Each structure stands twice: as C-alpha cells, then as structure tokens.
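Researcher: Please predict.
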Amino acid sequence: MASSYDFVVIGGGSAGYAAARTATQLGLRTAVVEGGEELGGLCILRGCMPSKTLLESASRFRTLRRAREFGLRAEKIGIEAKEIILRKRRLVGEFADYRVEQLESGPFDLIRGWAGFLDPHSIEVRKPDGSSLQITSKAFLIATGSRPTRLSVPGLEQIGYLGSDEVLESSTIPKSVIVLGGGATALEFASYYDGLGSEVTLIQRSSQVLKEFDADIA
C-alpha cells in the first residue's frame, strides 16, 4: 500500500468503485477509502437495489389484484411481508458480495477507515483498530453517499414514524400510511405500499411532485 497517489476516492459505493476502476484504467495510481462497517455503498445496501426489489413484489401483487380486468382468476391472493423482506435481503446480499469482491481484488488499493482532510492534498485515515495513516494525493473524489434527513415536524418523534431505512426492513404492511414528501424516494415507497393494498396519502409542500424535474415529467 502506497502513501502517495494520483487519485483517491473517499467512499466505496457504486460511484466510488466506478471512478476508481476508470482511474486505474487511465493509468493513475488509485486508492479507495471506505469507513463503513459494510462494503457495498448506499445504492446496493440501502437505496436503489433494495427499493427495486420491494417495488417488484408490489408490482406483481398489483397485477394479481387486477386479474379480473383481464378475464383471469387469481383466488385467495395474499401477502407474506416477511418473505418479501427475506427476498430483498438475499438479492442485496448477492449484489453486495460481488461488490466486495470487486473492491478487494480491484487494481487499486482499498483502505478501510474514516478520512479527514489535513490540507487540499492530504488526508488522515482513522482505521478500525484505532491506528491512523496519512495519505497524499494529487486529486480526491468525495463519494460518501447520503443519509436520511430527520424532519422537525411537531409531534413526529412522539408518535413514531418510519424512515427509508426502516421501511426497507419492515415486515409490516399498514392498512393506511401517510408519506411526507414528493421526491423520488417518497414516490417509490408510496407506490410500494399502494401496490400491496395500503391506503396511501402523499403530502407534498411544493406545487408538484418531483419538484426538481420538468413539469411534464413530474
């Protein structure tokens, strides 16, 4: 492992891995610094992939509910929410294992630890065992992902609620649910619960859902 690089990526998710792979293909001495307990990144572990597995289950159940429209009979249909979550975990685990293999065997150095900048070309990495090392690089890419925002809505903490991370692990399908927000994540979970038969109410402050998008797309 070197202490000086051409290019260092902070974050080992999908964006970080793609950037590191491309940089090495261009001949740059590259390292990836990742401090999370699990390798894989937001998209695989808590974002795109797990949400899409839930949406697929909801989509198929929505089709079964509409069977009579197409002259079909699907009798005694039901939901096993725990099995939906187990399927999600299995698929995410397969993707995550493959990403771990890519990161650990890639043509770049993988450094486990939390990075902090010392100056524009130096970072200190605090490793899980308590030790630290300093790394210099000509350029850095910050690809640390995101985390859910906790809203300061009066009374929300007292009544309890689910964030996006909690929904991905919830094996309970509510009879009714309010979704706060109209962004992509909110619409995905609204669609998920609607597909499984929940009564969904979406509350959005802006004049349109997907406010960052063109109006016709929204």
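Model: Strands lie at 4-10, 30-34, 109-112, 114-119, 122-126, 132-142, 176-180, 199-203.
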